[in-house]
Structure formats: structure tokens, C-alpha cells
Design goal:
Layout: H1 4-14, E1 27-32, E2 37-41, H2 54-64, E3 70-76, H3 87-96, E4 102-106, E5 112-116, H4 117-120, H5 127-133
Parallel strand pairs: 3-4
Antiparallel strand pairs: 1-2, 1-3, 4-5
Length: 134
């Protein structure tokens, strides 16, 4: 899989971030099984609990358009260090992805690491767990 298009899309969305409180821009791009890519940025709020991460913004855009299975997601925050998804975003990725869903954490087009969801959120709690308990 060529990750550079996904990373480039995340970088473009990073520039749209509304982060007047933290001044920390984050962009994300999600590739769904359909082949479509949805991008998102972090959107802060004076009531910090109402802030939404770039990953969830991109995922929710795709889900609201009828997508339902994430193939890969790229995340770009700092250009000098890797910016990993927070715990809430990892859980949302688990809701719409699989254990082998690729998570690309990039500084730029040349410097990135690729992890699986299982590596970032081992033994995650998913809808399959709920089905087992009912």
C-alpha cells in the first residue's frame, strides 16, 4: 500500500486545524474499504471536553457518508516527533477497524511508522465482545 497519498491528505488537513488554545495542529486521513479517503483536523473548544481530535473528525465524516470499515488511517501532528492517536481515538478506530488496520504515524512524507491497531490497542474492547456477553 502506498501511504504517501494518505499522509499528504493528513498534512493538508493539519493546516485546517482549529487549535487556538493548544496551538497544536493535527491532521488525519482515513482510507475506508470503498477506497474513499476522508480527512479531518482537530477542532478545539473553550469547553475542552467538546474538543474533537483529527482522527475522530475524519472517521465520523466517513461514517456519516455511509462508510463502515477502516482500512488505514494516517495521523500527522508534530513535524519533529511522531504524534500517536489518543486513547479515545484508538477506541473509535477499533469500532470501525480490524486488528490489522494500519495506523500510519507521520512527521512528513518520508518519515513515518506503520503500526496495526492491535499493536496500539492490544486486547481492545469491541462490538464482538458485546455480542459474546449478551
Amino acid at each position: 500500500m502506498d501511504y504517501k497519498n494518505l499522509i499528504k491528505t493528513a498534512m493538508d488537513y493539519r493546516e485546517k486545524a482549529y487549535c487556538i488554545y493548544s496551538n497544536f495542529k493535527v491532521g488525519a486521513a482515513v482510507l475506508f474499504d470503498s477506497g474513499k479517503i476522508y480527512g479531518g483536523c482537530n477542532i478545539e473548544n473553550a469547553s475542552f471536553g467538546a474538543t474533537n481530535c483529527a482522527e475522530r473528525t475524519a472517521i465520523f465524516k466517513g461514517i456519516s457518508e455511509g462508510e463502515n470499515n477502516i482500512t488505514a488511517i494516517a495521523v500527522v501532528g508534530s513535524f519533529t516527533d511522531y504524534t500517536y492517536p489518543c486513547g479515545v481515538c484508538r477506541q473509535v478506530i477499533a469500532e470501525f477497524g480490524e486488528k490489522d488496520t494500519k495506523i500510519i504515524i507521520a512527521k512528513n512524507l518520508e518519515e513515518y511508522v506503520v503500526k496495526t491497531l492491535e499493536e496500539l490497542l492490544p486486547s481492545s474492547f469491541t462490538k464482538d465482545d458485546i455480542d459474546k456477553k449478551i
